[in-house]
Design goal:
Low-confidence stretches: none
Oligomer: single chain
Shape: globular
Structural class: alpha/beta
Radius of gyration: 24 Å
Number of helices: 15
Largest sheet: 7 strands, parallel
Strand content: 15-25%
C-alpha cells in the first residue's frame, strides 16, 4: 500500500480512492487511467465509465448514483454523485458467526477500581451533577475549589468533575425529553468511574432532585449526596455546603485502589468525528478489529450515532443474534425518519464541510466507514439513549451523530472508556471515561500529535496491516484503562463535553 497512489477497496468497485493528491493529467499506469482533474488525497476517481443513474460502489456497497455520466479518471464527489435510497434486505442473522471466546483464565487484564457492587471503573472521580441549568454555576464553583494542590493528599482520586447541563426546566414532564435527561443523569450518578456523587438542584425546577433520586432508584449515602439551593440558603451557602460534602467523600474515594481485573469489565464507546476518506480504510476498521479482540475477551463494544448507520444498517441487522434485535435497530431508524420530519429536518442530509473536504460525499459513504468501528462479531442488543447496557459483546445504543451528545449517552449507558476516530482532527475529551483518539492518516497525526493518541495512518504507510493495528489499539485500551493518561486528559479536556440529548419543545 506504501507506494500506490490509488487504492482498490473491492474487486467489484467502480471507484478508486486516492492515497495521495493527484494532478490534472497524471498518468496512473497500474490502473490504465489518467486523472481528469486535480483530486485531493482521500477522494475518489472513477475506475471505469459510470453512466448517469448507475450505482457507485465502494467496498462493494452502494454509496449513491451518478448524477451525470462519469468517465474513467473523473473525480467522483458531490458534483456528480447523488444520494439515492435503495432497497436493502435486513436478512436478520444471516451473517452471524460464533465468537471464539478466550478462556476466562487466559483473558487479558487491566488495573481497575472495583466498586462494592462489583462494577469496575477505569478512573476514580467524584462527580457533581446539576439537576437544572440554574445550579450549573454552583457545581462548577464547587469543583473549581478542588485544585491539584488540594487533591494532592488523595492520590487515588483522579479529580472532582462538574457535569453542568442546560436543561431540567422549561420542558414538558412527562415527556421523552424529560425521561432521557433523567436517565442520563442517573447513568452518570451510578457510573463505575465515579466513586462519589453530589447532585445539586435549585428547588423550583421541573426536574426536582428528590423525585430524580426516587424515580431513578439512586441510593443516598456517604458517597451519594444532594443539595437544593433554595433550601440551603442560596448560591454562596450551597457552594460552601457542596465543598464540605465533597471534602467528606474524598477519604472514602481515596481508599479505593486499582487492582488486577479481567478485560471483560471494559466497555468501550465507539465514536468518530471529523471523518475523511481514509476513516473507512484505516482507523475505523482497525478499531473494529480491536473490538473483535475485546469481545473475545468478554468485553463490550458500544456503537452509536444512528443517523450515521443509515444506508448500511443491513450490515448490522444481518449480524443480529435474533430478528427482534435486528428489528429494534430498524425501529430506531424509523423513529429518526419521523423525528427529523417533524422538526423540519432531513434524515438523508449531506455530511459536514470537514467530511466533504476529506473526501466523503454523503451520509451513505460516511455510514459505511462508521459502521466498521463495531467489528464483525454478532449484534447482541440494541439500547435506547443512555439506557443501562447489561449485555456483553457488540451492542448498539441509539444517539444523534453529534459527538458530545453521543458520547454523553454512551458514558451514561456504562462506557468506561471511549475510542474516537478522526481524519480531520477532532479535539475531544470526556469525563469521567477517558477518550483515546485515533488518527486516520499520518500527515494529520504529525500536525496534531499533541491531541492524537494512535496513528492509524501507519496502515496506509505500509508499516502494519489492519489486524496488527487492531492489536495495537487493544493493547493501548488496556494501558489507558489501567490509568495511563490519554492525550485529551493531559490537555485537560472533558469539562465541557457533557451534553445530554435535548428532544422536543422548550416551553
Amino acid at each position: 500500500m506504501r507506494d500506490r497512489p490509488l487504492l482498490r477497496l473491492h474487486p467489484d468497485d467502480n471507484i478508486l480512492v486516492t492515497k495521495t493528491a493527484l494532478a490534472l493529467g497524471q498518468a496512473l499506469e497500474e490502473f490504465g487511467l489518467r486523472a481528469r482533474a486535480q483530486v485531493p488525497a482521500g477522494h475518489k476517481i472513477a475506475s471505469q465509465r459510470i453512466a448517469a443513474g448507475e450505482s457507485v460502489r465502494k467496498y462493494n456497497a452502494v454509496i449513491g448514483v451518478a448524477s451525470r455520466d462519469i468517465e474513467p479518471g473523473d473525480h467522483v464527489h458531490t458534483h456528480n454523485l447523488a444520494l439515492a435510497d435503495f432497497d436493502r434486505d435486513p436478512a436478520f442473522g444471516q451473517d452471524v458467526r460464533p465468537v471464539h471466546y478466550v478462556p476466562e483464565t487466559e483473558r487479558a487484564r487491566f488495573m481497575g477500581f472495583v466498586r462494592e457492587d462489583g462494577r469496575v471503573g477505569t478512573r476514580n472521580f467524584i462527580g457533581i451533577l446539576s439537576s437544572v441549568n440554574c445550579s450549573a454555576t454552583v457545581i462548577r464553583n464547587i469543583a473549581a475549589h478542588f485544585t491539584p494542590e488540594r487533591l494532592a493528599a488523595f492520590p487515588n482520586v483522579d479529580g472532582v468533575a462538574a457535569f453542568a447541563q442546560t436543561s431540567g426546566c422549561g420542558m414538558s414532564s412527562p415527556s421523552e425529553h424529560f425521561d432521557v435527561l433523567r436517565r442520563t443523569l442517573a447513568g452518570y450518578a451510578r457510573h463505575a468511574n465515579l466513586a462519589g456523587v453530589l447532585i445539586v438542584g435549585l428547588g423550583c425546577e421541573r426536574n426536582q432532585v428528590v423525585s430524580l433520586v426516587e424515580s431513578q432508584r439512586l441510593k443516598a449515602g456517604r458517597l451519594m449526596r444532594t443539595l437544593v439551593m433554595q433550601e440551603v440558603g442560596g448560591t454562596r451557602e450551597t457552594i460552601q455546603a457542596g465543598i464540605e460534602a465533597v471534602q467528606a467523600m474524598l477519604p472514602l474515594a481515596n481508599a479505593c485502589q486499582r487492582q488486577s481485573v479481567p478485560a471483560s469489565h471494559i466497555k468501550v464507546g465507539l465514536e468518530c468525528g471529523g471523518s475523511d476518506g481514509f476513516s473507512g480504510i484505516t482507523a475505523n476498521p482497525a478499531l473494529g478489529a480491536a473490538m473483535d479482540i475485546l469481545v473475545r475477551h468478554g468485553g463490550t463494544a458500544i456503537l452509536s450515532e444512528t443517523p450515521e448507520i443509515h444506508g448500511v444498517e443491513y450490515l448490522l441487522t444481518r449480524r443480529a443474534v435474533t430478528p427482534e434485535v435486528g428489528q429494534k435497530l430498524l425501529d430506531r431508524l424509523a423513529w429518526w425518519e419521523n423525528y427529523t420530519r417533524g422538526h423540519n429536518g432531513q434524515f438523508n442530509g449531506v455530511v459536514g464541510p470537514g467530511n466533504q473536504a476529506g473526501g466523503l460525499a454523503n451520509i451513505f459513504e460516511k455510514s459505511l466507514g462508521s459502521a466498521m468501528k463495531g467489528g464483525t462479531t454478532p449484534l447482541q442488543a440494541v439500547y435506547e439513549y443512555a439506557e443501562p447496557i447489561a449485555s456483553a459483546g457488540f451492542v448498539f445504543m441509539d444517539s444523534p451523530g453529534y459527538d458530545p451528545v453521543a458520547v454523553t449517552g454512551q458514558i451514561a449507558s456504562g462506557a468506561n472508556l471511549i475510542c474516537f476516530t478522526t481524519g480531520r482532527g477532532s479535539m475531544f475529551g470526556s469525563k469521567p471515561a477517558p477518550t483515546i483518539k485515533l488518527a486516520t492518516n499520518t500527515p494529520m497525526y504529525r500536525r496534531l500529535e499533541q491531541d492524537m493518541d494512535i496513528n492509524c495512518g501507519a496502515i496506509l504507510d505500509g508499516e502494519v496491516d489492519v489486524a496488527q493495528m487492531g492489536q495495537r489499539i487493544f493493547e493501548a485500551i488496556l494501558r489507558h484503562a489501567s490509568g495511563e493518561p490519554t492525550k485529551s486528559e493531559t490537555l485537560g479536556l472533558g469539562d465541557n463535553e457533557f451534553v445530554p440529548w435535548h428532544l422536543g419543545i422548550v416551553s
